[in-house]
Design a protein that fits this description.
six-stranded mixed sheet, single chain, about 35% helix, alpha/beta, Rossmann fold, seven-stranded mixed sheet
């Protein structure tokens, strides 16, 4: 990512855009780890190189500022790449809720005029069920997951990792208008059909800063800080994982992404990767606390945000 330096005395209308969130980790935590499924994949410098490669590869496939790019993926380093690279290009990232019914997924894709889909191979059968609703989709990019046999009723135009392998280490992410739409999410659990909600670059950056202030990350270690090891258990399609991946990236925290997970595997990662900060729905926390492995995991240093329903604190077991 090219970073433009402006000399003293030169006015610069500093736009609140996503690429600005990457300046701090590159300056203060360039060698900090980003982990996927228990293994180190890269540091922040490697992460930014992947952003450049992804953007350049998508651009060569025809993705432009007018593109609507839908993503169906688990909580992974690849999703973290999409959260930044696609909006930074000027395109719109559509975070698809893959837990919704095929009817609602089809509606969200058609209604938002998606032209590009990035999809984990696990979700191909769901997309195949709505094949007749994909006439407006120009390209499908596959994230190859375990167990994929290479067979699909859909035409696969490219593979995610190959795009990055063929991409360039440098990409000129533009200084966008901060009111440019960055992401799109369709609501769940509302009356009638899902409702589309847009988030601009400005809104995401301001939310990230406000989240940092409210969580105490700039003045104390009692909340979330750059000294934490962060792992999201809230699905990243759900309002960007409540905005926490943007904050974790901005402060240069060590990040762990669980991929396809369950309560038991989440506890294993908390133990093995020494996770100190996470967030999830009460149901997930309840299942983790009910798993036999919880007795073997030290949770005394884990800070966790629970939202979406009644707090799970009443489910904590007494000795």
């Amino acid at each position: 990512m090219a970073v433009t330096k402006y000399p003293l005395g030169v006015n610069y209308d500093y736009p609140l855009i996503l690429k600005k969130l990457l300046l701090t980790p590159l300056d203060y935590a360039p060698t900090q780890e980003i982990i996927f499924g228990g293994r180190r994949v890269y540091d922040y410098r490697g992460y930014v190189r992947r952003l450049n490669s992804l953007a350049s590869g998508l651009n060569r496939l025809g993705v432009t500022r007018e593109s609507m790019v839908a993503v169906l993926e688990y909580n992974s380093h690849r999703y973290l790449e999409c959260l930044f690279a696609i909006p930074m290009m000027g395109a719109t990232l559509h975070t698809i809720n893959w837990r919704q019914s095929p009817e609602y997924v089809a509606y969200a894709i058609e209604h938002s005029q998606v032209d590009t889909i990035i999809i984990n191979s696990t979700f191909l059968p769901q997309l195949e069920k709505i094949k007749s609703h994909l006439d407006g989709v120009k390209r499908i990019i596959l994230i190859r997951d375990e167990g994929y046999d290479g067979q699909s009723l859909l035409k696969i135009d490219a593979e995610y990792e190959q795009i990055i392998a063929d991409g360039f280490d440098s990409y000129d992410f533009p200084d966008l208008d901060e009111n440019t739409v960055a992401t799109l999410y369709y609501t769940a659990g509302t009356t009638a059909r899902p409702k589309g909600v847009f988030f601009s670059h400005r809104q995401i950056v301001l939310h990230t800063m406000a989240l940092g202030l409210s969580s105490g990350c700039f003045h104390t270690r009692s909340g979330f800080s750059a000294f934490d090891t962060y792992m999201p258990l809230t699905p990243l399609y759900h309002e960007h994982g409540w905005g926490m991946p943007y904050l974790a990236t901005m402060v240069g925290a060590r990040q762990v992404y669980p991929g396809r997970h369950n309560p038991h595997s989440a506890l294993e990662l908390i133990r093995d990767q020494k996770v100190t900060f996470s967030h999830c729905l009460p149901t997930m926390l309840h299942m983790m606390l009910s798993d036999p492995l919880v007795d073997e995991v030290d949770l005394s240093k884990l800070k966790i945000i629970v939202s979406g329903a009644k707090s799970a604190v009443n489910w904590l077991r007494t000795p």
